[in-house]
Amino acid sequence: MSVPYPKFKAAACHVAPVFLDSAASAEKAVALIGEAARAGAGLVVFPEGYMPGFPLWAALRAPIHNHDLFKRLAAQSVRLDGPEIGLVRDAARRHGVLVSLGFSESTEASVGCLWNANVLIGRDGAILNHHRKLVPTFYEKLIWANGDARGLRVTPTEIGRVGMLICGENTNPLARYALMAQGEQVHISTYPPAWPTRPPGQSAAYDLARAIEIRAGAHAFEAKVFNIVCSAVLDSAARAILCDGDAAIADIVERTPAGVSMVLDPTGAHLVAPHQGDETIVYAEIDVAACVEPKQFHDVVGYYNRFDIFRLTVDRAPREPISFEAAVRPAGPAAEGEGAEGFGLDAAAHRSEPPHRASH
């Protein structure tokens, strides 16, 4: 049986969300999916935290000043089965494209526990993969909880085997190798609009674009994959909310280098010019067959490794806040006929029920 090597057009939506408004951001995503599909795209990618926007305030002020913004983010964070992602799924189905979407995820178990998440949606609108960022980076820990490895997987699709990591996860060699070892061919990397560190003048500013270039090139070259990088844009509406009239913070935001979107081939070379700045959609033609020849040089999940020396084990067990077990009844005649009613509960409530879990 011959191995298929698909060809397709990728679209990285280098855009801003409607800041802290998930419903409006979903509507904007639907419009962008339609635009990309009409341009011939088979895969449409949105940035990290696109819905409802990246919480950049955690870098700009002390936590004590950010409670109101966190409450707004929590209120606008969405669930996998919610109406906002439902709109995006409908658009993917209507246009027959795959969609990768970054979002802040909430849970019915808590009003304050959030995750930095990403979802891969199929051409039929189905959820193909749901990944939560394993470790929030630096000041993101003030916003998001640790994820687990349930979504650390590569998904077979019509455009090839697709994997995805969020921002700083692309610096984690074990997370990247976990995807390489599952036969990844197309990698999705998502990023925020900027990454403030110190006020300009105190030290060299962290150059997000340069950091992205290094990480994206490393994974494309080491994994021999196409790497689709999508960064967000910080628009004037978001700037106004973040700065809130504070000139010093406005100066930091203004001087902080912005993120960049790009598409790299399996040698680490640019397929199209990278884009940094105003909103646009970055398109690139991809031929998955180009992954094959570079594997002759370095195949770190094949002959170019020592599996007798190195081993990697990944625990994909979901980390849920609680699990329930059925009550253990005493043995003997006294237990006969004693059902859930004996505890003042109906039978359905007495049965062991797993906590709510989004389907994958």
UniProtKB/TrEMBL annotation:
EC number: 3.5.5.1
Keyword Transmembrane helix: no
Top-level class of the enzyme under EC nomenclature: hydrolase
Highest taxon above the source species: Bacteria
UniProt similarity note: Belongs to the carbon-nitrogen hydrolase superfamily. Nitrilase family.
Ranges where the CN hydrolase domain occurs: 8-288
Identification of the protein by name: Nitrilase
Organism for this UniProt entry: Methylorubrum populi (strain ATCC BAA-705 / NCIMB 13946 / BJ001) (Methylobacterium populi)
Ranges of Low complexity composition bias in the record: 330-347
Residues making up the signal peptide according to the UniProt record: none
Residue ranges, annotated region (Disordered): 330-360
A GO term for molecular function: nitrilase activity
Composition-biased stretches (Basic and acidic residues): 348-360
CDD domains: nitrilases_CHs (cd07564)
Keywords: Hydrolase
